[in-house]
Amino acid sequence: MNPRTRLWLVATGGAGLAALLVAACLRLPRFGGDRHPYGDRAVHASLERHTANTVASVNFDQRAFDTLGEMTILFAAVLGCVVLLRQTRDEHRAHPEPADVARPVRRYALLVLPVALLTGLYVVAHGQLSPGGGFQGGVVAATALHVLYLGADYRALERVRPVGAYEVGDALATSAYLVTGVAGLIGGTAFLANTLLPYGTFNTLSSGGTVPLLNAAVGMEVACAVVVLLAGFLDQAVEIVDEGEDDDRAGDGHHHEERGK
Amino acid sequence: MNRRRTLLAVVEVAAWWAALGALWLVFVTVVDPLELAVGAGVAGVAALAARGARRAVAGW
Amino acid sequence: MTAVPHVLPYLVAVWVFLAGAYGLATSRNLIHAVGCLSVCQAATYVLLLAVGYRDGATAPVFSDVEPGTRPVVDPVVQALALTDVVVGATVTALLLALVVQVAKRHGTVDPDELTELRG
Amino acid sequence: MNGWILAATAVLGAGVGATVWGVATGPLRRRVVAQNLSTALACPALLLLAQGYDRPAYVDLALVLALLGPVGTLVFARLLAGELAGDPPRARALTRSAAGLGAGVVLALCVAVGPSRALLKLLVVGVLLVGGNLLASRALSGGMAGARRG
Amino acid sequence: MGEAVIVVALLLVAVSATAAVAVRDPVRQSLVLAVLGVVLAVLFTVLQAPDVALSQLAVGSALTPLLLLLTVRKVKRRGRRRRENEP
User: Fold this and answer.
1) Contacts D56 to C, Cβ<8 Å
2) Which candidate from D19, D65, D79 shows the least CB-CB separation from E69?
3) What chain D residue is nearest to A114 in terms of C-alpha separation?
4) Is residue A255 part of a domain?
5) What is the mean pLDDT of chain D?
6) What is the three-class DSSP state of A50?
7) Strands, E, within C1-119: which ranges?
8) Least CB-CB distance to D49: which of E35, E46, E69?
């Protein structure tokens, strides 16, 4: 198909889709309307179980099974990345040269790493109280580690990041979620039902029954998943060189820039 | 010299731990024993990470 | 309030989605296409949250407000969008890993050149 | 609608709007500066919104942005060091005025909040925001020159 | 007009999303995507969804740009080799 025909096809299809979508928008309940039956019920259920953050309650209590699905997608995506980005037989590892980063940047990186890690873990731990939770805090904590690559060099990052340990952590966290679910099945009523633990005092760390546990499991899974994911990409971009590919050192003199093709 | 080095390491981690623990207390809204315990643990993890990062950058 | 703000968020979601789809269809670089796909994903978040909004309401998070004192927006759509954001990012990563593989196997990331290679 | 939200609207419309335009056009050196400024301006806007909606919990958003925004700019500074070395960005005045805006907003909020734990949190956010953005700007204009490879 | 801030945030999202599609070079696009992430986070905040905004901030500000730029770096190295092989 030549580009011209394709553009026509895209234009026709896009126009049709746009017309349908706009027609649908005009029939939607108006923005800011007052009728949210599911939302009201979710808030009610969340308050009944002493979970201050209703969104966490929906994710880890009322729709915990759905979150299990999301976790599985995450796990599978990371697995796919690891397989796709693994080192093949015709590739070898070239050790990256130590980078010479300006001193204030390096100091900033060393300062921000623990602070960002603490913030990430704070966001995970208070997921059932204030805005945040395992998904957000996990990403923040994992990003914190990679400040070391930005502010120093890849070798420094590799020293604090044994990838194998994070792969194990990823798997363990996923199983922890499943085990909590099965525990609900054995000790209580149903898979992932929040009937096992006392609901605690409203707006404290231990409130919400199993919500904090599932939250922590997701936080650990996301953090480990992101670390493993970035490890694959960093290895490919920085270390792994295949035969014939010009080495970093040879190619460094001329950094081509592809101006908007 | 080994004991001196251990002492320095302990001091470094303890200093980070205290600073990060104080930061945790700034972040949280309600202070209760469980909150303090979790904060102490998390600050410990972050302090170890801080020391690990500094050593990784400086070379072992 | 006039009628326009009542559909504006939905129309913005439609616009963002269509813009992303146009970029996907006309992209000459697979990395750019993955970026366009994440624009399409953003449209879904905007649509979901727009459906859940309530005039003058606040977030359904009761760590700093007393329950029942202020109207709150719909938490269900927020929970959907929330997991979507992180999972969407990992899916983006998976697609980028595929792009790296394509570049390794065929030496190009231009979809048109890839079609020629196959045919 | 109160004064805080009005101020946030102004910061968003004028400041962040300008950075969107700056990041979409022009040479690479202007785009990276615009990206850095977008986080430097969005963070005060988030703080203003938190105050305007009377939700101290929203300050967490500004905290995360103040931490990760400069880290994002460092990503660009690090991985585009080769492209930026020949044509380093210079935007001292803009960066300083954005930092000044951030500091001003934090101070105004501190006065509004009064002495409490929330005040300390605001100060932490302010220090991270201003320090991070000044440093990210420094990294863009040559701080990563020795890190073109690796 | 209590909704002015929502309208402003919506327009910012629409403009930056359009820019993210219109900018064809992946490096420049990743810069626009980083700004789009921040603007989306602001929109989610004014739509009273701080959880989603936090998610978007965590992902959009550093993680997505890092992934995109690392891919660009890997692919560019390969492309350079290919151009040198077939002049």
Assistant:
1) 64
2) D79
3) D67
4) no
5) 90
6) coil
7) none
8) E46
Alpha carbon B18 to its chain's center:
6
Q: In the structure, do chain D and chain A come into contact, i.e. share 3 or more CB pairs under 8 Å?
A: yes
Residue type, A55: V
Domain boundaries, chain B: 2-58
- Tell me whether residue A167 is in a domain: yes
What is the distance between the alpha carbons of residues C72 and C88, in angstroms, rounded to a whole number?
A: 27
Compute mean pLDDT per 10 residues along chain E, 87 residues long, and list them: 84 96 94 96 95 94 94 82 57
Query: Model confidence over C41-100: pLDDT tens digits?
Result: 999 999 999 999 998 899 999 988 888 889 999 999 999 999 889 888 988 999 999 999
Q: With contacts defined as CB-CB under 8 Å, which chain A residues touch B18?
A: none
Among C12, C24, C37, C87, the strongest candidate for a mutation testing the E interface, having the largest count of E CBs within 10 A, is: C12
Q: Note whether ipTM > 0.90 here.
A: yes
**Cβ of E45 and D20 within 8 Å?**
no
Domain coverage including residue A117? 55-241
- Asked whether residue A209 is assigned to any structural domain, the reply reads yes
Count of the separate structural domains present in chain D: 1
pLDDT of residue A251: 38
**Lookup: tokens for C76:** 């269900």
- E18 at the A interface (CB within 8 A)? no
Q: How many domains does chain A have?
A: 1
Q: pLDDT truncated to tens, each residue of chain A (261 aa)?
A: 677 888 899 999 999 999 999 999 988 888 888 889 999 999 999 998 899 999 999 999 988 999 999 999 999 999 999 999 988 877 888 877 777 788 889 999 999 999 999 999 999 999 989 998 899 999 999 999 999 999 888 888 888 889 999 999 999 999 999 998 888 888 867 888 887 888 888 888 888 888 999 999 999 999 999 999 999 999 988 887 765 555 444 333 333 333 333
Cβ–Cβ below 8 Å for A132 and E67 = no
Interface A–B counts its CB contacts (< 8 A) at: 72
Pull the structure tokens for residue C91: 């899916």
Cα separation, C25 vs C15, in Å, equals 15
Minimal Cβ distance to C38: which of E50, E51, E64: E64
The alpha carbon of residue D107 is apart from the nearest alpha carbon of chain A, in Å, by 22
Give E58's contacts in chain A (Cβ within 8 Å). Answer: 136-137, 139-140, 143
Residues in chain B with CB shorter than 8 Å from the CB of D63 are: 27
On chain E, the residues whose CB falls within 8 A of the CB of A248 are 77
- For chain E, give every domain's residue range: 4-85
Chain A residues with CB-CB distance to B45 below 8 A: 117, 121
**pLDDT above 60 for D148:** no
* CATH fold group of domain C4-118: Helix Hairpins (1.10.287)
Question: Please, do chains B and E touch (3+ CB pairs < 8 Å)?
Answer: no
Both tokens of residue E70?
A: 């690392």
Sign, Cα dihedral of B36, B42, B46, B48: positive
Q: What burial letters (b/e) apply to A224-251, b meaning 16+ CB within 10 Å?
A: bbbbbbbbbbbbbbbbbbeeebeebeeb
**E strand segments, A17-116:** 91-93
For residue A259, the model assigns a pLDDT of 33
Establish if A18 belongs to a structural domain. Answer: no
CA distances from A15 to A10, A11, A26, C44, E17 (A): 8, 6, 17, 19, 19
- pLDDT tens readout for residues D82-101: 888 888 888 889 999 999 99
